[in-house]
Each structure stands twice: as C-alpha cells, then as structure tokens.
Amino acid sequence: MIRGLRPCLRPTRLAHTSAHSATHLKRPPAPDLADHSSPSSPPPITPLIITQQGLEGFWPSKEVRQFSAQYQVVFPTALRGLAKEQFKEFGVRILVCNKHVFSLHHYKYLSVFGHVLAEKILESYRQKKSRPLWIYAQTASVSDGSNCVVQTTAKRMVWKALLTALRAVGYDETGRSLDGESQRVLQGTIRVAISAPKTILKSDFDAFVKHLITVLKEQVISRLDFSQGSRS
Fold first, then answer.
1. Is 60 among the domain residues?
2. Of 71, 169, 170, which is closest to residue 124 (Cα–Cα)?
3. Structure confidence at residue 229 (pLDDT)
4. Buried/exposed code over 117-137 (b: 16+ C-beta within 10 A; e: otherwise)
5. Is 63 a member of any domain?
6. Where is this region: Disordered (predicted)?
C-alpha cells in the first residue's frame, strides 16, 4: 500500500493474469442456433386462381348487392358450362347464362372490403345494360404457362372467332338480328374461358369457328333468353 494517499486514490489490485484465471474469466461462447443442415427449398408459391368453385367464399358489398338486384346483373356462379370435351382440342370452354353476369375479373373490386374503382365499374355495367347480349373471352386457370402476350393474343383470337360465328347464325355482337327486320334479340351472357392459350393459337381458326357455329345453333342459343326490341 502506498502511504500518504487517501483510500479513494489508492490503485486497485490488478486482476490475475495467469492462464488459469484468464480461462476462468473468459465469456462462454454464444450457443450456435444456426441450422447447419442442407438448406431446404422455399415452399412453392401457389398463384391465386379464381375458379367457379372458388367463388363460394366471395361476398359482395352492400352497394354491389343493391346494384345486382336493381339492374338484374348476377354473379358468375350463375354461368353453366357446356361439356368440357366439346372444346378440349381447342383449350377453351363455353359457359352460358340467360341473365347478364358480372365479369369474373371484376370480383376483386366488388367485394365487401370495398375498392376505389367499385363505383366506376358499376357505372360501366349500368351503361352496358343497353346491350342485350354480353360476351366475355377471358383466360381462366391457365395451365400451359402462357405469358401475358400469349394470353392477350389468344383472347383476341377467341373474340374474333366468336363474333364471326355469331354473324354466321344471324346475330351481331350485341345479340341483335343482322337482317335489320327481325325483332328477335338474344338476351344473356356467353363466356369463353381459355385455359390453354397456346393450344387455341395453334388451332385452325376456320375449324374453331365452324365448331362454334354448331355449338351456338345446337346448345347456346336455346339457353339464352329472347326479347323483342328495336335496334339502337
């Protein structure tokens, strides 16, 4: 001890520096929580695909329900599909309803959760009511890995083929008679669901139109309603 210094100024005893003491005072290593096993691949991301069966969980907003009741526009669950085998070679399917039907692609805007575009979309349907026949050519549950460009091209081809077939049986795209004299008007909705865009694009256009004409005559038109009205 150094004499003459106050206790608070006296140097403290140095810690032992022996190997044993150093080992004794060493901080224990942190536990290794990492998993050194081979990294597992992340779970596959399942795309959200809206199908007819998947619509059961959809609940429209109050405004949409009121619009549906007032303007008689029903939901896609009302569509009834023709036998899949009839168009299997073309990668499409035909669905029909004798009422006007909301587009499947608009469901995300019409749910009970609300959307800023909901009113604008409902207004487009309000204006569309002047057309007796509604037609959709839409991709659905695409199974062949087609990109957006391929899907868009396929939709355009199907749309053109359907209009060509309708004209061949005497109606325009609104469901009105082409002769300008008949007051018979097709009323309802025709939806062509495209599941294999690459398949339809590889198909012969004329053969597809010919098949559509047969199906329109034998199965589709009879499932639609008929109304009497002047051309507008």
1. no
2. 71
3. 58
4. ebeebbeebeeeeeebbbbbb
5. no
6. 17-41
Summarised one tens digit per residue, pLDDT across range 208-227 is 999 999 999 999 999 999 87
Is 223 among the domain residues? yes
Q: Could you list the residue range(s) of the whole structural domain that residue 190 is in? A: 80-102+132-228
Q: Is 35 exposed, middle or buried (0-12, 13-18, 19+ CB in 10 A)?
A: exposed
Q: Supply the CATH number for residue 179's domain.
A: 3.30.230
Specify the pLDDT at position 95. Answer: 96
Total domain count, the chain: 1
Q: What is the dihedral of CA 12, 18, 24, 30, to 10 degrees?
A: 100
Specify if 209 maps to a domain.
Answer: yes
Could you tell me where the beta strands, DSSP code E, fall in 24-117?
A: 73-74, 80-81, 92-97, 100-101
Tokens of 34: 């990492």
State CA 13 to chain mean position distance.
Answer: 77
User: Nearest to residue 96, comparing CAs of 80, 74, 78?
Assistant: 80
Averaged pLDDT for residues 194-198? 94
Tokens representing 10 are 């006296």
pTM, full prediction: 0.72
Let me know: does 188 contact 133? Beta carbons within 8 Å. yes
- Could you give the angle at which helices 62-71 and 118-128 cross, rounded to 10 degrees? 0
Please give the Cα distance from 132 to 224 (Å, whole number): 10
Closest CA to 232 of 165, 183, 159, 169: 183
Instruction: Specify the range with the lowest mean pLDDT, choosing from 84-88, 129-133, 168-172, 220-224.
Output: 84-88
